[in-house]
TrEMBL record:
InterPro entries: CarboxyPept-like_regulatory (IPR008969). Pfam families: CarboxypepD_reg. This is Carboxypeptidase regulatory-like domain-containing protein. It comes from the Bacteria.
Length: 261
């Protein structure tokens, strides 16, 4: 009987171990170095991975696609990224000043690894393997988002009193629930609450606003909201044109699980 119990216990342990291994995503590693020649760039640097199956290659002058993974660049330009097996575009950014990830500001430097034909290079991450992808020296200073011929959504953000809200980000989703990672993010609203959200192409989008980049629970006093009255409303966008007049009202988060009334 004791031997039978031991056999059963061992079998349970083996099954649990097998299930745990099956649940762990198979990952691989890419490493490299980005050597940008402008020594006056003292801000933070990051490498971004963009899963090819989840969207288009990044194009900051037209739209800011939210990365599938973000990793810091060390002081000597070296970086190491670990990601689930798959195909990725790889890009990076370095702030002219300040810190943090998110859409670029004028003067920030961006690079996108390209192939010999000038097209975005696709890096393949293989499970359990490490690859050194070399040293990059290219980079382009961001001058701002293009204003003509770009697919976009434009409007304003105001609070419940009708006052413009500055410094808010607009997030675009493909689903009404607006859960998970957004597809695209705007630059921050200006002093008059104006925003311009660049997109890769036309379609139906749902918009949410936040005054900080990234996930996590909002803090008391931060602005939240979405486009629509009572429930999220779709925004229909035509490729190559700007859909205007998409105005959003934000609420201050009261810190009790809901925005303040």
């Amino acid at each position: 009987m004791k031997k039978l119990v031991q056999v059963i216990t061992l079998s349970v342990v083996v099954v649990i171990a097998a299930v745990t291994i099956a649940q762990e995503p198979a990952t691989g590693t890419l490493s490299g170095r980005w050597m940008w020649l402008q020594k006056d760039l003292a801000g933070d640097g990051y490498v971004h991975l963009f899963n090819v199956t989840n969207g288009p290659p990044p194009l900051p002058e037209s739209y800011w696609r939210v990365p599938d993974g973000t990793f810091p660049i060390e002081g000597d330009g070296r970086f190491t990224v670990q990601a689930p097996a798959g195909s990725y575009f790889l890009g990076g950014m370095k702030r002219l000043k300040g810190k943090g990830v998110g859409p670029l500001s004028p003067g920030d430097v961006f690079f996108l690894k390209k192939d010999e034909n000038g097209k975005p290079f696709i890096h393949v991450v293989k499970a359990g393997e490490k690859a050194d992808i070399g040293t990059f020296t290219d980079g382009v200073a961001f001058k701002g988002v293009l204003q003509k011929g770009v697919t976009a959504i434009e409007g304003t953000v105001a609070d419940r009193d009708g006052k413009p809200v500055e410094g808010v980000l607009i997030l675009a989703y493909a689903n009404r629930e607006m859960k998970g990672r957004p597809l695209f993010v705007s630059t921050k609203t200006d002093r008059k609450g104006n925003y311009r959200l660049g997109l890769h192409q036309g379609g139906t989008y749902y918009l949410k606003i936040r005054d900080f980049y990234g996930g996590g629970r909002p803090q008391e006093g931060q602005i939240l909201g979405f486009y629509g009255s009572g429930e999220a409303a779709p925004v229909l966008v035509t490729t190559g044109a700007a859909t205007k007049g998409i105005d959003i009202v934000g609420n201050r988060f009261a810190g009790r699980g809901n925005a303040s009334p």
